[in-house]
Amino acid sequence: MDILKSSLKEISTAVRAKKISAQEVAEFYLKRATAHNPKLNAYITMNADVLAQANEIDSKIAKGEDLSSKKLLGVPFGIKDMLCTKGLKTTAASKILENFIPPYDATVVSRIKSNGGVVLGKLNQDEFAMGSSNETSFYGLCRNPWDLDRVPGGSSGGSAAAQAAGLAAATIGTDTGGSIRQPASYCGIVGVKPTYGRVSRYGIIAYASSLDQAGPMVNSVEDAALVLESICGFDQMDSTTSQRSDIQFSQNLNKSVKGLKIGVLKEFLSDQLDSDVKKALELSIENLKKQGAEIVEVSIPLTKHAVPIYYLIASSEASSNLSRYDGVKFGYRHDFKDLSSVSLDSFYSKTRGDGFGSEVKRRIIMGTYCLSSGYYEAYYGKASQVRRMLKAQFSDVFKSCDALISPVSTTPAFKIGERIDDALAMYLNDIFTVSTNLAGIPGMSIPYGLSQKNLPIGIQLMCKDFDEQKMLNIAAALEETSPVRGAQPKGFA
Asked: pTM to 2 decimals?
């Protein structure tokens, strides 16, 4: 079988039927990672035990054990370095956690393993998931396999690059303000940000706790549905997880959009849209019409304030979450010659000053200011109020339409170094994605075009809370008409 072109279901079925061994599949992806990762820097850490995990699966099959319930049997995963992996270094791409080896797995990771998946290694990202380009990693920038001079997007850039280049059968990313969808768009893969509470956050290193969600970054909508149903569901270790049981996404996948009403957000039809992105959006809308969907223009006025709201809330929560990294209990500590002569303030400032990168420090400072006495109500408090109003406006729109369609980003992938010194330009890159996180609704990116420079372009779908099934169904219909379905970057096919 052609492993690289096989779906996750096809891989697991073949492993279960002994047509190929889990070890052969793991060796295939390890070989590709060894050959191509030096060009991309997608992996930070490889898992030395991956072949042992694969061999254990093969042994169980040989013994005749019933593994029919294992949906991801023998499927090698790359895991974003934001998720804890037992016995495997987890750094959040930061110096301050450079030697941290968790004693437990994140729930997402444990559910992948319980479904027969194996962990290939940990993937590069922006430090603490704070970035839109994967240029802020302590372990060096990650490159886009479609053009090595361009960014893969962020913060889950390593996940997107590894998936697009075929260095894993599937990858996991996290999304706080677009960190799954934007790199998925830039690298030409499918990326899903689930409803807040659909997937457990236990074991995910916290950035902004009210916004963070993990999700699949894969080659197809079918693969996305399979991974999502494998990792979601109630978790007693995360009180924010939903107890809903409607999670058989792959089994219920339906490619019909006939009779559905799909809204186009007026506020997202920006003059700033790159012409190639605009063409891809127009084509996707036209093809949905041909398939029987009704397209309507809708308005959510508060989306124009989404970016500042997001950065106020996210930075404030980051300031609180990252205060635990002080060099006392674990993580990096500044090399003091004589601790007895060092004041507590100096201990903290030197450790955190060395351990955090510039973007992380920028957001901590901004968040601390927003939470400080006299400014809390004016900034964080007001942003939280507008967030609730934004969520209400989304709820109202979904009363009159089944889904929303929009661009993922204003442009395809930009060049390395192009925006790294312009924080405002980098933040505005999230203009079409942060609203879904603020509202807590699901969103995803589907490849739907190539620019004149042969760069992937993704289209974003959004649905109401816990309506992932409908979103995936519409995505599957779009995928059928995508002019770039199955396209791969040259040099990695």
From this structure: 0.96
